[in-house]
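Methods — Computational structure assignment.
A single polypeptide chain was analysed. Its primary sequence is given first, followed by the predicted tertiary structure written as structure tokens.
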Amino acid sequence: MKVCCIASLDEAELASSLGAYAIGLVSAMPSGPGPIADELIAEIAAAAPMHLQKFLLTSRLDADEIAQQVMRAGTNTVQIVDAAASGSHARLRDLIPHVQLVQVIHVTGEGSIREAESIAAEVDAILLDSGNPTAKIKELGGTGRTHDWAVSRAIVQAVGIPVYLAGGLRAENVAEAVDVVRPFGVDVCSGVRTNGALDAEKLAAFAAAIPR
């Protein structure tokens, strides 16, 4: 379980206490919930429980800028939420070899399968979400929408690396999502929040609903 949109050390500790494997720290985005200042991201990453995977979510596309942002943040994983230019992942490997690379694929149809296949060899994991990068104001996550899980299942079967499933997950549907897609992990933001704040009851219910 990855809990995204973490906005404070208290939220990070709550997520950890309820079984999170990873937390997501969202930097500046063109739209969507959860962005916090880079300085706060660094503070949370430094103080959060050591066992957590700490994901920096970035909408930047230049590899050198991403690497600099990751080094300032001090996270052990970077989640690239938009389509990076050719060669960017190889450049990131050179610049931050100790950091895990996770590429987001926004599942919009069967073309997303080919997109995932084309990038799988260059990254450590893929995260499937329900954004719309072609919208006038890009949607790069946190939409609260589900997508076609049959396509997500095909991606899991097609790539030989871990795949996280995001997009509209909540306690009521996560068991079905896992049963259909068989992902490495699930990622949740809006489905465990109330008025923008991480909700302990919703997160506990979500965690309990994930099939083991």
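Note: The chain has eight helices and ten strands.
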